[in-house]
Amino acid sequence: MKYKCPICTDSQWPLKQVGSSFHILEEQCVIGAGSRLQKCHGCSSTDRDRLVFVYLRDYLRVFSAECGIKTILHVAPEHCIAQWFLEQKDISYMPIDSKEHGYEYQDYIMEMNVLDLDIQSNSVDLVICNHVLQDIEEDSKALGEINRVLKPGGKAILQVPISNSADHIIEDPTVKDYSGREAMFGQRFHCRIYNESGFIHRVSAVGFDVETISISDQYSDCSLNPLEKLFVANKHHD
Q1: Are 191 and 137 in contact (CB under 8 A)?
Q2: pLDDT (tens place) for every residue of the chain, 238 residues total
Q3: Quick check: is 189 in a domain?
């Protein structure tokens, strides 16, 4: 396998293990989750991080001087991607996290909850929220906040693990303990497993137009998941 990381250019192969294996993830054919050899040796990016990065770089062209995207909100930022934004002088970059899970957080990350964003309405060009919404009990409220802060015509990249077999969103708000969530949703912090149509409906319900974009096959040397789509939510123009 030929591999070159689009984020750090490292080419060590095979990649390192990332994720955890739970029966429910296999049973529900969950895309973008589970144990897999997908962590880059150089920057620790995963397949889903690299997918978001190539979309940012090649489709939105956020690292180009001529790009019109100048204000970016990044929820629970991946360090490998955040480093690129921190070096951009012409971008107002807001990396935030609720810091509720007890991980080690980089100093540049501001403590802020996506359920209650201390950000002016209609002020952000782009929101990146990569595999976060499945951890949030009130995901519709979070989506509403993302919609509120985006400028008309702004975009949000909203990635979540997607079941390739479920015909509805699998969730139960009464399951709150770690062992129960691991068994039902495949991770101790997860609150649900989305299916594609259910996720699109939930995002659309707060006022977004949702695009599904498949580009993984265009990056054969980046070790992307060929089944993972991008979900890009567009805020209506006034």
Answers
A1: yes
A2: 799 999 999 999 999 999 999 999 999 999 989 999 999 999 999 999 999 999 999 999 999 988 999 999 999 999 999 999 999 999 999 999 999 887 889 999 999 999 999 999 999 999 999 999 999 999 999 999 999 999 999 999 999 999 999 999 999 999 999 999 999 999 999 999 999 999 999 999 999 999 999 999 999 999 999 999 999 999 998 7
A3: yes
* Residue 13 lies inside a defined structural domain of this protein: no
Range of the domain at 222: 22-33+68-235
* String of DSSP letters for 143-190: HHHHHHHEEEEEEEEEE--EESS-SS-EE-TT--SHHHHHHHHSSTT-
**How many independent structural domains does the chain possess?**
1
